[in-house]
Amino acid sequence: MASNKKYWKSVEELNENSSIVEALQSNEFVEQIPVDEFLGDKENLSNSSTSRRDFLKYVGFSTAAASLAACEGPVIKSIPYVVQPEEIIPGVADYYATTIADGYDFANILIKTREGRPIKVENNSTEGSVTGANARVHASVLSLYDNLRLKSPKINKKEASWNEVNAKVKASLVDAKVKGGQVVVLTNTTASPSTDKLISDLATKYTNVKHVVYDAISDSNALDAFQAVYGFRALANYNFENADTIVSVGADFLGDWQGGGYDAGYAKGRVPKNGKMSKHIQIEANMSLAGANADKRIPLTVANQKLVLVKLYNAVTGAGVSVGSIGKLDSEVEKAAQQLKAAGSKGVVVTGLDDFDAQYLVLGINLALKSEAFNPSDAKLTRKGDAKAVAQLVADMNAGKVHTLIMSGVNPVYTLANSKEFVAGLGKVKLSVSFSTKEDETAVKTTIAAASSHYLESWNDVSITRSNYSIAQPTIRPLFNTKQFQEALLTWNDNATPYYDFLKGFSAANLGGKTWNQAVHDGFVVTAIGSLVAQGGNFGGSASKLAAAKSNGLDLVLYSKTGMGDGQQANNPWLQEFPDPITRVSWDNYVTVSKADAEKLSLENFNVANGGLNGSYATIKVGNATLEKVPVIIQPGQAVGTIGLAFGYGRKEALKEEMQTGVNAYTLYANGNANQSATVTLADGEHEFACVQLQRTLMGRGDIVKDTTLSIFNKANEAGDKEIYNPTPVVSLDHKEVAATSVDLWTSFDRTSGHHFNLSIDLNSCTGCGACVIACHAENNVPVVGKAEVRRSRDMHWLRIDRYYSSEETFSGDIEKKEGSTGLSGTISTLQEMEDPSANPQVVFQPVMCQHCNHAPCETVCPVAATSHSRQGQNHMAYNRCVGTRYCANNCPYKVRRFNWFLYNKNDEFDYHMNDDLGRMVLNPDVNVRSRGVMEKCSMCIQMTQATILKAKKEGKEVGKDDFQTACSAACSSGSMKFGDVNNTASDVAQLLEDDRMYHLLESIGTKPNVMYHVKVRNDK
């Protein structure tokens, strides 16, 4: 029988009106411990002299102190739908196929939405898609929620209605027609047939309309060369999976060369199968992603690269064009030429040199080889810019010939080297219009700033290649008073048809038999195309011109960074904080120089007491253009006599203050040519970098990154002895050496029932592109902390991509040098030498995240059991339990746990997307937003694995063998990352677990990780 007695501890409790009792009922302590005075203030905390030990003494380990240290998470009240949309089920994601086409990046993608909000980009894996979303594409969803977007149109910097805008433009078009003035439509490469048709209709209605296509980073020389051979402006396509020998001369085809997207095909040939893998020779000035992945890399100046092309042409065709020597590397080039000739149709040559003759000659070489990897028939249509036409436009503007200038998707005030001339010409134009998502450098100087819709708010069609016709569909209604450029064109053409209806009707002829609904559902259609026949050409003439190339001063090679591209997403904090794959520097661009040139110019890099990387400033001069205060990075592998500088930085308009970083490389982009002669001088001052990886060499990390040569790999397989290249680590047990994997400190439980997740990473196919890093940010609500915090090693990335250099020219040379040292002084001297990377090091990329150890050292030291292990193999974090002791981070041998020093959500100290309501729309509701004072790390995307299990359960079927995914594995277009259930023996990951190349990081310490790696195999020299 239940008792109805009243129990009490204090007489005060009997007083029903007591304020003390009321306070105690809701709070353990009436007065809270005042630690918020310094925990909540970044400046006070960084300047505080209170040690961690004193802090723990101060707050103790009581329940209240634990709550304070972890900080109570925000309470967010949800409001249910009054009328629930039929297509939306709360808590269940919807996916829409669409296409990104921003003038620089083009790809078929899927957009994940939650309750009507686009929150993540995924690859469209449907067969035939042009996919391979890079880091920028994955980050583009955040740009939708940019609080500095242009929210409505403006006329003379004052808000206006669209009716006013359209009336003003139409009046100007009529006036220009009457007066015979030029009307110029200046756009980026839209690759949109329907948009081209609308511009053509405008030109028919107003006969003085001219369409000029302008790409910020120009491929004009390559387009001119292709047009000379095939009769129209496009870029040759390449199927690298069909090549046995790849020779690249200055083309970063694993980066942004020709729009990228080649890593999937390349990776197929780079994983050793049946004793074979493709051979990749890279000849370049800047250290690039392609160069870092090459079997053989030859650093050369731009002039010498042109001589190399002539040598390749002579070897392949038997021509006798006279060409000089390139010095001590001549024999290496001759060897590469003979290997290319021997490959025949299985060989291919690509070049990124910004020179018509170089581009033209490469087409000739591939035609002579009859290269199976060379695919001009399915040409890429994503670059159409014409540098000569743009130069003529600027001249016409300044001559007063242009009456009306209508721009869309371009920012020439920022991207043109002769920006001042363009601005002067704008002043002579009667009416200027800029369609832009931002009030950027150009929009603030035009008569009309027309607020353009984001691509995720728009309909469109895109011809990425000749065979690929794609449809872009909106995934959310326009957030602001914006319109598509195509809607405005229809209005100016007096066409009342909505753009959706126009597009649907126009596309009928391009759908190849598919219905409109099917094309929208799939995101694209593949259409039949005819093969192209070369119209011939004077390739020998181009070879003779290239043979006369000579260097004049330092060769400046301008390039696009993997994270920033052409700079249109410069206000995207995910991309600003994204560490460059090569230098591992975020929040900056910089001039890269070789160590030899740095010593001549008195330029230096050094680390300061807090571990931060500092460097000199330089002044760069190209012709009459000067760029001052350019930070310097001394880059291993940079060709002597060359320097590199990335586009995309140095912007000021429509950017938050911290995003206004770097220098504007377009200033030096004379005539749209990325290869210039420059002079460099030391400037005053010292620059502070935010670099996330200070180790510059492999330096004794041979058990972390394992690599071998193809010949050793094949011999070991013939002998059936993988120990030759992938030795099993041993430990001492009872004074005998035994395999480390056979010894356990703990009794293991049975993991064979249910699911058990593993992640496999193949070092051969990982190109270091970093798409996985941004995908992880988007999926898991990883905060951006800013340059100052990154510099303090407080970056919050759950996934990092370590980049290692060799100190010798090969990693095996590192091992031989280390093992060859004798005596204490000799060993110390050798190790000091090995800290200095080779002038031309080999490079390897290694993604590292929480290894989800079955015997996890973090779990044994947590005093509050905040971290624990699941039967499914995932290492869990209970954020509400964590009190921030950081014992787990100290005990983690992989250093993959991040301590959340500050509250990044709704905090004006961190002025990024998480501190405003619009930016927070990108957050994934399946993953909680962590408060300050807790440890966080990779969760192996537990929300995704559980969603897959629940979906299969609901459908009453088993999970498919490869249905499980993580954000990183889904984003990896090269196939390096494979995720799945090892208890399903048919899964890819279960088979990879048994592969002879498989190994675990730091296997000798017995952590038994659930992340595995595969030995990197390189071709012999």
From TrEMBL:
Coiled coil: none annotated. Residues 757-787, 841-872, 873-902 form the 4Fe-4S ferredoxin-type domain. It comes from the Bacteria. PROSITE patterns: 4FE4S_FER_2. It holds the Pfam family Fer4_7. NCBIfam families: MoCo_extend_TAT. This is Quinol:cytochrome c oxidoreductase iron-sulfur protein.
